[in-house]
Amino acid sequence: MHHATPLRGRGLPRSSARRAYATLLAAFVLTGLAALVAVGTWNNLNSGGFDATTTSSAAADDFVRNRLHDGPPDLTFLITTRDSIDSQSVTRMGQDLTRRLHHRDGVLTVRSYWQTKNPALRSTDRHHAVITALLRGDENDRVSVARTLVPEFTRPHAGMSIGATGPAWTGAQATDDSERDLLKAELLSAPVVLLVLILVFRSFVAALIPLAVAAVAAVITLALLRPLAALMPLSVFSTNLTAALGFGLTVDYCLFIINRYRHEVTAGLSAEQALHTAVRTAGRAAVYSSVTIAAAMAALLCFPIPFLRSMACSGLVVALCAAASSYLLLRPLLTLLGQRIAGPDQHDPWRVGAFWRTVAAMVTKRPALWAGGALLALTALLLPAAHLHLGPVDERILPPRAQAHSVARQLGAVIPAAQATTMSIAIPGASYERAREGWEAYARTWSRAHPTAALTTPTAHYRAGRVIGPGSPTLHQSGGTWMNAQLPQSAGTKASDAAVRDARTAAMPGPASIGGPAARFLDTRAAIKSSLLPALGITAASTALLLFLFTGSVFLPLKAIVVAALSMSACFGTVTWAFQDGHLTPLLGHFTVTGTVNPCILLLLFCVAFGLSMDYETFLLARIQEEYRRHGDNRRAVTTGISHTGRLVTVAAAAVAVAMAGLATSGITLLKILGFGLTVGVLIDATLVRTILVPASMCLIGRANWWAPASLRRARSTLARPRPKLRPL
């Protein structure tokens, strides 16, 4: 067994044995301070942000809420009574609840059945009624108010039970659940990853090192999210993603670096030389990998959607923290503990296994056949995505047991009108007063085209183009007017999309904008469509540039992008089959099958999975390129590279998959989709893609894998950092 010798060098990354303890002590103190900062991170996060903010529907909703102090409620209380809701005792209690709610801080507007006697706010059997509240402030303020109001107003009453739902209460419960799910996911995944690492390293100390570094990276990342949340809206789900992704990536990077270190020690190098070689090869690959992942996440900044932008910034932070923690902490750790993890030859984790040698030989012998088979398998996994349907986020992302979800389901059953999708027609200024008859004619025309919807104006209540009741004078105020349409269909359906489009294209007697959930989701889809090409362009260009700098090849970056796109498409197919179609409900826990998938979670899934795909691509190409430079035989380099890294890539993928699978245990459907999709994506990438498709395609391309024009080679030599040489002993 070789013993570590002190390292000589300059700067923190080349800490000597004399400074290793000081480095680790500083890291320990920094982690402790970061943990204190991270504790308050959740107070500054929000649970929404899934709609585009630069659209006409967003402007319409802002106008109705902030100028007219009206619009869809933030909180809805469902009151269920034994006696009739019109009885004297129940009426008295209902009026008291309404009055108390109206005078609470943070409440802007209250609507109550006992205040208006509006039949849309009660059930037909007169044992259920509704009180709604519009809350002040931004999303975080409204969630905070809901946390205060709901426990107070849902206390048991004699002869009356009260439940709460609505966006503000959904956000509060989603925040609480995500915080609990984060702890649960880490407690579930860490022991499994430790077991995997023990089986690989056959050393408890070696297995603990990646977990220790991963813990440091995760805590520092969560701490950095707190000041980031003060600068921009940050999704509460970013903590779950960064914890899982940071844990998986850090373990990944440490696994490759430690394995290379042990391989070099076993090959006869001193501990100093082995550590230097490991950092020069696997460490360099880790840096390129983290930058590639960060670039993939940065593409989400192209979309004008707060959720995606917050995930982009969180992803940038976690990718760079994972690489920095691995690079900076492994040197002192291996300096102090290297002699305890450099196992004997028979335990060399880099040894060529018979299985991977056989697989590599089979694939490289008949690359066209194997590539065709892998493409067929990926195509089969992709097929369910052909009937993918997109939908918005609502209370159904919560587990069925959550109050916001269960009460919404009950409300839809007993008072369907209270769960209708609101479409607002916002008319600024005095336009309605100047052309009242024209606006009423507009309302009748739209109502006639959509007979199942109800439309209320300040003067009339329409259905199927006919007046069926009086209007609501409160819709008209000094700052403007709005018309309230109630659509029986959910946002994202063809019928609700048609209702919004018809409202926008019909002849209007003055300026107006269309808002509400259906309009917001329609505009969000349009914003995604218009931003998709720039985002894909940034992802492809940055990946191509980084892989070119890493390999010096023109074809390898293009091949990597195409193969990753195929892998991501297969991932979309499995998500559609499992969640939209609900085929894995028993296995993944009981979640609500809505028949749709939110586009934001698919975009996030694509970018994270693409980055992870490039992670394995980088480490695999590093080994293949190293072999190719030794002898110049492309097929032999591919075979040797797969033989040496196949087992390692599989283990690394297993570690990341376990970390991501922790997300799939969440009760929140969005996190469940993300965890399941990334787990499947990583496993597909490590098996079909890295083991079969990549080596087969590289054999088919041949020596052209390593070709680049002379001008690009000169540019690379200027841009790429010169590779350091081993210092003489």
Overview of the molecule:
- The protein contains 23 helices and eleven strands.
- It is α+β, with helices and mostly antiparallel strands and 729 residues long.
- Among the domains are: 14-43 and 202-351, Up-down Bundle (Multidrug efflux transporter AcrB transmembrane fold); 355-390 and 527-717, Multidrug efflux transporter AcrB transmembrane domain (Multidrug efflux transporter AcrB transmembrane fold), CATH 1.20.1640.
- Strands 5, 6, 7, 8, 9, 10 and 11 form a seven-stranded antiparallel sheet that branches. A four-stranded antiparallel sheet has the order 2-3-1-4, with helices on both faces.
- β6 (454-456) and β7 form a beta hairpin.
- The radius of gyration is 30 Å and the shape is elongated.
